[in-house]
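#structure-requests
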Amino acid sequence: MRKVIVNEFLALDGTSQAPGGPEEDTSDGFKHGGWHMQYGGGDGMLKLISDAGGFLLGRRTYEIFAGYWPNAPEETQRFAEPMNTKPKHVVSTTLSGPLEWQNSTLLAGALPDAVAALKEEDGADLLVIGSSVLVQSLIQHGLVDEFRLLIDPVLVGGGKRIFPDDGELRRLRLVDNEATSTGTIIATYAPA
């Protein structure tokens, strides 16, 4: 059985919105897009992407990635190759297929059943990047097997978060951790 691994860039105040660029997601007046870029992804980011059996993406993240990775600059080709060639399972109620980005398909059926079926398939683990609304749903349905959180030493004063605000207590255990030279803490957690 393969795992669902959520990989997220978080500001120290818990914000996950628009880590990659100023125009990535300005919804609700968010004006600090790109806050993560000066901190890097740690040495394990390329390995995590390369080792993934595929990606599980929400609509908004899919659209951002589909607009960037197929035409990514030469200096990012180590990341672009696995992003472009590996299967991408897209969760959306508004998109219709077929999807244009190579190896992308809409996930059919109810989210809990569809993701549980993907987890039962043979292959390497599924990686979730970004996709804050999807991540909240996966958490609420108990479908996340591991969180890999890159926590940057910056406060952005609000924005979207990945953890549901639903009053539920969910215990985690620390699996691994490291600190980068830029001050980012990479913490890996699994359900306790």
